[in-house]
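Translate sequence into structure tokens.
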Amino acid sequence: MTAEHREARERRSPDQREAELFARLPEILRHAREEAPGWARHLKDVDPAAVTSRQALASVPVLRKSDLLQHQKAEPPFGGFLAGSLRGVQRVFMSPGPIWEPQPEGQDPWNVARALEAAGFRPGDVVINTFSYHLTPGGFLLDHGARALGCTVFPGGVGNTEMLLEAVETLKPSGYVGTPDFLKVLLDKGAEMGRDMSSLKRALVSGGALFPSLRADYAARGIAVLQCYATAELGVIAYESEAGSGMIVNEDYIVEIVRPGTGTPVADGEVGELVVTNFNRTYPMIRFGTGDLSAVLPGQSPCGRTGQRIAGWMGRADQRTKIKGMFVDPVQIADVLARHPEIRKARLVVTRASEQDVMTLQVETATSETASAIAATLREVTKLKGAVECMAEGSLPNDGKVISDERDYGGQAA
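Result follows.
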């Protein structure tokens, strides 16, 4: 897709976009029912031909991420939601959970190029990609999008900070893609080692919150940082533009905000769970409940793009929480407790320190002697490093929280 084609689609009238999306919807519903046994079961009471409006779509049952996880466990690897077979699928990924995802078809299978273009990336740019290329789709997601835009990609991945600094100094990339926090790690380490990082002028970040203080820090260094909201199942759902006014819903997605725990849409402006429908014929997602909270913003972006806007990430409808770009689920904390019967009760507290996510597992236990062993188990289960704080029995609140996210988001997206 050319830049002109992308721009033309972004500036369609909202009514035209809505009409075209819902004219296409019955066909993807029919395709999902005929080609994917999981969708055939989930949509058994749905007449695809009748789903031609938001009101009709609201009657289709929501498939939540937790449901998909259970379906995949019962019927591995995809729970019956892959349309067809793996023949022709280039890659399969395993995200934390684990949740399995097939790579969609196409040059830009996760619809990333538009978000990069809105963030100032252009054909010919050299881009350093610090998302992981291992197990999960993050690295490939941005890699495909950047190359579809005409950029040259250095696949840096995560870690190996000193080698990445050498790559920046040698290749002089103008763009960075990765998590918000890791860009600061690179810049700070580069300054400490006297490396020339001045080529970096723009960044598209995801996988964590771009806190206002962090965005301001990057701006002071001469780097314009915008963010996109993406998931492994759906790709880039929404993205920021230079207008800095909410996040614009990507083309080829239908976004609804529903009352958490239900499939009932809420009024524009009301906070609820983000539910998304895509048109991916390999792995269709129809009313997929992301578990994330957001709200629809009124009006259109001042940048001229006419797509629906959302407020970005506003928390979790459940307690599943993204920490350092990885999701941690209450089920994982239950797993830690099961391995340590000396723990009577536990709560994972997530905070920020020095512009980094910090997680602390507070445990009620009669002894502090096993704290290091508990910390080791926490890291093994979540793949993230965290501290363990031993608490007196009865000191943790009786409010049902297993994960307490105490970071100050300032209304920004994660």
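Note: Residues 14-35 form the longest helix (22 residues).
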